[in-house]
Design goal:
Elements lengths: L1 H22 L2 E4 L1 H7 L1 H33 L4 H48 L3 E4 L8 E2 L1 H9 L2
Parallel strand pairs: 1-2, 1-3
Helix pairs in contact: 2-5, 3-4, 4-5
């Protein structure tokens, strides 16, 4: 009798474990696709390109000013100081651009995570992975995440 009860309990536990494994729904997103096609990403990239262009224009202006001073026979010491000043000014702007880029990228990544969480909640998925680590199986929710992101 004890063996039968133990066997029934063992079978019950095994069935519960099998059911819980099968009940886990796995989905994946193509993170690159979502990141690239998110409207905010496109806007951020355009903004960053404009800022880069402004920096490049400033570099060109400073190079022309440097050449003009060189033609006006500015001393080598003063030319060196002028070049260092220009480099520092440009470096500050480049660093600001890099910081801005990092912040915007982090914001976009957070948006993607939040949108994924909303989609997961709506469709009842328990696990979401990146497409790059999936060999087979799972449900692609990339388009749903993109739809959630771009409706804001």
């Amino acid at each position: 009798m004890k063996k039968t009860a133990a066997m029934i309990i063992t079978v019950f536990i095994m069935l519960m474990m099998a059911y819980s494994v099968n009940a886990t729904t796995i989905a994946y997103i193509d993170y690159q696709k979502v990141f690239t096609n998110y409207e905010k990403t496109k806007k951020v990239q355009d903004d960053l390109k404009k800022k880069e262009l402004l920096i490049q224009e400033e570099i060109t202006k400073k190079q022309k000013l440097y050449e003009k001073e060189k033609e006006n026979k500015m001393s080598d010491g003063d030319l060196r100081k002028l070049a260092e000043k220009f480099q520092k000014e440009i470096e500050i702007k480049r660093n600001d651009l890099m910081e801005s880029s990092k912040k915007m990228t982090n914001d976009i990544q957070n948006d993607i995570v939040k949108a994924t969480e909303v989609v997961v909640k709506n469709i009842g998925v328990e696990i979401v992975l990146d497409k790059q680590i999936i060999i087979t199986g799972g449900t692609d929710i990339s388009d749903k995440v993109l739809e959630q992101l771009n409706k804001k």
